[in-house]
Description:
Elements: H1 30-35, H2 41-60, E1 63-65, H3 68-77, H4 88-99, E2 111-113, H5 122-154, H6 156-163
Antiparallel strand pairs: 1-2
Helix pairs in contact: 2-4, 2-5, 3-4, 5-6
Amino acid sequence: MPNQTIKTPCVGLCSTVYGDLVCRGCKRYHHEVIQWNGYNAEEKQAVWLRLEQLLVQVMTSKLQVLDPQRLRQQLEDRKIRFVPHQSPYCWAYQLIARGARVISKLDAYGLALLPEFRERNLTDLRDAIDREFFLLSEAHYERYIAPGFLRETFGAPLIASTLG
């Protein structure tokens, strides 16, 4: 595994340049993508934590991590980058995102799909996980972030008149 620290959630598939408010690649909000290099450590940590919480929510609904040490060793052996201090469910996502086409037995990686997902093709499941992660990020943005941007941009009276 490369001895580099992963410094950004970016996965090189940015859709914010096309006008998306939530990036379809890394699931950060457009302003987080733009301002990332200006964020201090606390601001970056808050973004990382939100992404981790949403991803864990999605992953725990699809699989179990039975052996975190085996999973970690497999990631290291295969040189798949992951964030060591994050949940093993985030590690499982990295494994599936990079290896869905070649993995035949998840138990070799310390993972087990929940019964309702055992018959699914791993590539299809990977795509479903990514879609659900994006939809959760988008819903979080619309619920908690967008109203604040509207107030900051247009002021409270405009919000009240458009909602009332």
